[in-house]
Amino acid sequence: MSDTYSDGMTVRRAVLGDEHVDRAIARTDGFTADFQDLITRYAWGEIWTRDGLDRRTRSCITLSILAALGHENELAMHVKAALRNGLTRDEIKEVLLQVAIYAGVPAANTAFAVAQRVLADIPDAP
Q: What GO molecular functions are on record for this protein (predicted)?
């Protein structure tokens, strides 16, 4: 196992949580194995491990992009990750308000609905 893969798996677990990563790994088969390796090495091992931005900032950027592109499933996952990376409900709200101005109200409307559902399941989140 390469250092990039190991580092990526460490960050992936820290940001997304063991439960999520374990489910993804359990669903991996011959068709998806290369993709799981790719995202672990490149997204998590090359990008999320870089020193240039902290994880809170990376979460803000990720939420913005996923909301703007309408990737609801990934957005839900990264709302949870943003909380794990130290963002508060109010900071997530501010990110989505920013999305409304720069990516459009419909994108933000959908993102707010996704985040509201996720946050309702985590009542003790700050």
A: peroxiredoxin activity
